[in-house]
Amino acid sequence: MRYLEGIVLKKWSAAVLAGALAVGALAGCGGDDAGSGGGGDDKLVMGFSQVGAESGWRTANTKSIQESAAAAGIELKFSDAQGKQENQIAALRSFVTQKVDAIILAPQKETGWDVVLRDAKRANIPVVLVDRGITGSPDSYATLIASDFVAEGRMAGEWLAKATNGQCNIAELQGTTGAAPAIDRAKGFREAIAKHPGMKIIEGLSQTGDFTRAKGKDVMQAFLKSPNGGQIQAVYAHNDDMALGAIQAIEEAGKKAGTDIKVVSVDGGKAALDALAAGKINCSVECSPRLGPQAFEAVQAVLNGQTLPKQQVVKDRLFDSTNVQDVMARKDYWE
Ligand code: AHR
After folding, report:
1. Where are the beta strands (DSSP E) in 132-243?
2. Beta bridge partners of 199
């Protein structure tokens, strides 16, 4: 079974895969071990290397990919890298050795993928990136399905500028160092607040909370106790989990989250919308984790010999007090 120069010699034709995706026929999901050996003769076998389970977003993303694979009758070899790039690289190597039909990769960091992606390419195994982009040659992957993280950061910054009339001292909880959403959300936010001389990120109060609730809380606690802690008027968290951790720290410090200190985050999941409805988060920019259907459509297209655009941007919305009730009433959110 090979993917060769756009010609697919497969167990299933792409048309059959398309049918399965459309019908959504339920079948068992594949194993959870990247090293568990190849699949049977009549199923597509794919590898999925996931970053870990650091956030609610990540769990929802894993579920979306696994459900889409099951609906298409694809055997999915799932590997949870537990936040370590080296585990992802080892999983990819294992997928190549097992001669999977395609690989879906949610890369932890932007850099460091050149060698393993070259090996996948040499083995004629197409790679579809989901969630996060990478640096390096665009020839090393088929397409990237992801949100525009710079735009998300910009939306968050513009919202805060409007809400504070351009006057605000900000603490920032950054995502995992080196990850595309941490780099890009910082960039977009800075672009937006740079237009407002009265807005600044307080010196020393921008640190990584690694996209987790526990670290978000710890870092916010340290910020509040620091010499500049009294200046904080808003916290910009690169994801909902860190924002929810920060809220705990703010409350334990005897302050009102959402009022004494505004809270702005990214992801827009159900937990953040609940906090928004309770007035503890002021704004959350959506980042949809439901990438499974698009990821398998992309795999199907690639196995069918099509060339895809290098990036397929997922559209995001912004949630605040003006639309949260409506969104919750329609259950138009991820959880
Ligand atoms: O790459 C997407 C980010 O990773 C989400 O915003 C965050 O919650 C996750 O951990």
Report:
1. 143-147, 168-174, 199-208, 234-237
2. 168
- Which pLDDT band holds residue 43 (cuts at 50, 70, 90)? confident
In whole angstroms, give the CA distance from residue 191 to residue 203: 17
pLDDT tens track for 93-102: 999 999 999 9
Ligand 1 within 6 A of CB of 149: no
**In the predicted structure, residue 280 carries a pLDDT above the cut 90:** yes
Task: Supply φ then ψ for residue 174, to 5 degrees.
Answer: -85, 155
Longest dimension (CA), the chain: 65
Q: Report whether residue 267 contacts ligand 1, using a CB cutoff of 6 Å.
A: yes
Sorted by where each starts, the structural domains of the chain and their CATH numbers stand as: 14-147+288-315 (3.40.50.2300), 149-287+321-329 (3.40.50.2300)
Q: Report the distance separating Cα 260 and Cα 120, nearest Å.
A: 51
Q: Is 324 within 8 Å of 269 (Cβ atoms)?
A: no
Atom of ligand 1 at shortest range from CA of 180 = 1
Residue 324, φ and ψ in degrees, nearest 5: -60, -40
CA distance 292 to 128: 11
